[in-house]
Amino acid sequence: HYPLRRQRQMCIRDSAGTLAAGVYRGGLTLLFDDNSPPQVVNILFVVVGGGAGAATMQVDGEAAGTCTPQKLLAVHRSLGSNFGSVLGWPSNIEVQVVDDCGNAITNATVVTTFSNGDPPLALASLRNGLYTRTWRPVNASSRVTVTARASLPPLTEAVAQAQGQVSAN
């Protein structure tokens, strides 16, 4: 049994009804009482709007609106900002890819590159919009950027980045 320390109360509400159609990105920073590093949860929120000549989407058998995808969107699900990896130790990389209509993309090409000189990695599709691969860092760096690029022509490519460090073992 651990005592709970209540410092702030947080409420998150779905306010999609008040948002204009578009793509919204954000982050939720989690702070812990045990002095462990803060963790950031990446948020990607797609509000779909309609347009002339667009395909009709169905929800429970009824028309829910129209949307013609134009671009891909990607977000890191496993690497947050200020991530820490250890040289040679496995780190899971997971990227979620959707189009700007909110549909999960299962057949994109997703490749990650590393600013520390590690070789690029092609991620494998889990067939639900998630792409994953294990990265074993080979070059230590106090500052490394992991860039994931998702492509599926003719849609515009998506880029997601996470920054952190790779420390010596």
Overview of this protein structure:
The two termini are 35 Å apart. A hairpin with a 2-residue loop joins strand 3 (55-59) and strand 4 (62-67). The protein has a 5-stranded mixed beta sheet, with no helix packed on it. Helix content is 0%, strand content 52%. With 169 residues, it is mostly beta strands.
Total DSSP E strands: 13
Helix content: under 10%
Rg (C-alpha, Å): 19 Å
Mean pLDDT: 82
Give, in spatial order, the strands making up the sheet with the most strands.
6-13-12-8-9
Uncertain runs are 1-9, 50-63
Strand content: over 45%
Describe the global form.
globular
Largest β-sheet summary: 5 strands, mixed
Q: Structural class of the secondary structure composition?
A: mainly beta
Question: What's the end-to-end separation, in Å?
Answer: 35 Å
Order of helices and strands: EEEEEEEEEEEEE
Distinct helical segment count: 0
Record the SSE blueprint.
Elements: E1 22-30, E2 39-47, E3 55-59, E4 62-67, E5 72-76, E6 83-86, E7 91-99, E8 109-114, E9 121-122, E10 124-125, E11 130-135, E12 141-152, E13 155-167
Parallel strand pairs: 6-13
Antiparallel strand pairs: 1-2, 3-4, 5-7, 7-11, 8-9, 8-12, 10-11, 12-13
